[in-house]
Amino acid sequence: MSSLMTSSKPAFIKTRWGDIPELTHANYNEWKDNMILILSAMGAYTIISGDDPKLQPLDFDHDDNYDHWKDEKAEASSMIRLSCTPEVRCIVKGMRNPHEMWNTIETSLDSTRSYIGRQDILRQFRSCQHKVDKPLNTYFTTLGNYCT
User: Fold this and answer.
1) What's the CA gap between 2 and 107, in Å, rounded?
2) Residue 50 and residue 73: Cα distance in Å, rounded?
3) Residue 16, CB half-sphere, CA atoms under 13 Å: how many?
4) Which of 67, 78, 84, 130 has the fewest Cβ atoms surrounding its Cβ within 10 A?
5) Measured between alpha carbons, how far is 96 from 77 in angstroms, rounded to an integer?
6) pLDDT in tens, 21-69
């Protein structure tokens, strides 16, 4: 069975859709990209992103898919929690809602959202200089990486 993603580190969780790397304080962006692909393949990403209409108060008594939705929600929650190192897991301790877990992890670990992370990106941007022996388009591509 082939994976959607490969990583230099061993996967913490192997799924039929791909491998989920263990989330540390240093690999949030890689983890997030892999999790989005896998949760989308599972059909559970809308639960995480908050775009799922089932998050709105509805009358579930007449919804045949409610049990399936609860299973997807529980699986998404467990994938998020179990893919975290113990140090990161404490960030979502006691949480059961995968949407809340996702947002809490993003707020805590996404370096582009923290002041220190933004300052580091700015420092890297300012230190980026064109090298005479490299093509100019390589320099512009490098600069563009800091704008995304």
Assistant:
1) 32
2) 12
3) 2
4) 67
5) 6
6) 788 888 888 889 888 988 888 888 888 887 776 655 455 555 666 777 7
